[in-house]
Write a structure and sequence with these properties.
The chain has 282 residues and is α/β, with parallel strands linked by helices. The protein is built from 8 helices and 15 strands. It folds into 2 domains: 182 residues, 2-Layer Sandwich (Alpha-Beta Plaits); 82 residues, D-Maltodextrin-Binding Protein, domain 2 (3-Layer(aba) Sandwich), CATH 3.40.190.10.
Length: 282
């Protein structure tokens, strides 16, 4: 079973994908990874959903809002995000005047950059590994990348500073998405992801919807709004709750919600313990 992930090689997405299986394949975007899963080119796509310091990944939420009935979330994993400053062999911290990185990694390291590299130019890349690859290809000792230490080994770079960032305990949550088919069986430690679209936009409708969970003892653990595309004040809502759709309280809550809203079940799957994730060693 091959798992697609947001490449290139050396990304945290690769680390996440390898936690689901040893066969992985990089793709240039979240959309391309999902297309590989949808078309059967890969068993599933492992995509970043949210970061503990920088919030949600908009590209992923945009894709999840329109995955349709043919794809389902079937798992999750949380990956520790350890970042380093990488440069060419012989480069020095004092000589760096440009830093490349992914927007989420830059957000995690913004204060460190301003304090340790004042005045440096920041250039955003599609991923931390892409930043490392660009630095390796550029050939300038004045340009560095913020990426994982594993990316240094993969792209032939040196670690200029081993640990950077405003927090050293950051995590990124990834979800695995595959073609709809046989349901993931309950484990007793499950999570269900839903997408709620209200048919009528009126005061209190969201609060009434969320109350359906609380009334049945279902724990709401994550909520995020997303534009529905019709106007600036119309939203859909991503909701994660504890439990499996086969659990009677949750099934009853979803049935009650569907009286006033369209509810797409994105998937029920086992919650991921952080301890199972290991870094990729090259």
């Amino acid at each position: 079973m091959t798992h697609a992930y947001l490449g290139p090689q050396g990304t945290f997405s690769e680390t996440a994908a390898r936690s689901f299986g040893t066969r992985v394949r990089p793709y240039t975007s979240v959309s391309a990874a999902l297309a590989a899963a949808r078309g059967g080119e890969c068993y599933a796509a492992v995509i970043p959903l949210e970061n503990s310091t920088s919030g949600v990944v908009p590209a992923t939420l945009g894709e999840l809002a329109r995955i349709g009935e043919d794809l389902r979330v079937d798992g999750e994993v949380e990956v520790p995000v350890r970042l380093a400053l990488l440069g060419l062999s012989g480069a020095s911290l004092s000589g760096v005047n440009r830093v490349r990185s992914h927007p989420h990694a830059h957000s995690q390291c913004a204060r460190w950059i301003s304090e340790s590299l004042p005045g440096v130019e920041v250039v955003l890349s599609d991923s931390t590994a892409a930043a490392a690859r660009e630095v390796a290809a550029g050939g300038s000792p004045a340009v560095a990348a913020i990426a994982s230490p594993e990316a240094a080994a993969h792209y032939g770079l040196s670690v200029l500073v081993d640990s950077v960032g405003d927090r050293t305990d950051a995590w990124t949550r990834f979800v695995s998405v595959r073609r709809a088919g046989e349901s993931v069986l309950p484990t007793g430690h499950d999570r269900t992801s839903l997408l709620i679209t209200h048919r009528v936009n009126r005061p209190g409708v969201l609060a009434e919807s969320l109350a359906e969970f609380g009334a049945r003892g279902v724990d709401l653990v994550w909520l995020h709004s997303w534009p529905d595309g019709s106007s600036l004040r119309r939203f859909r809502f991503f909701v994660d709750v504890e439990g499996h759709l086969d659990d009677l309280p949750l099934a009853d809550a979803v049935a009650a919600l569907r009286k006033a809203a369209d509810v797409a079940v994105l998937g029920s799957y086992a919650r991921a313990p952080r301890a199972v994730v290991k870094e990729v060693v090259r």
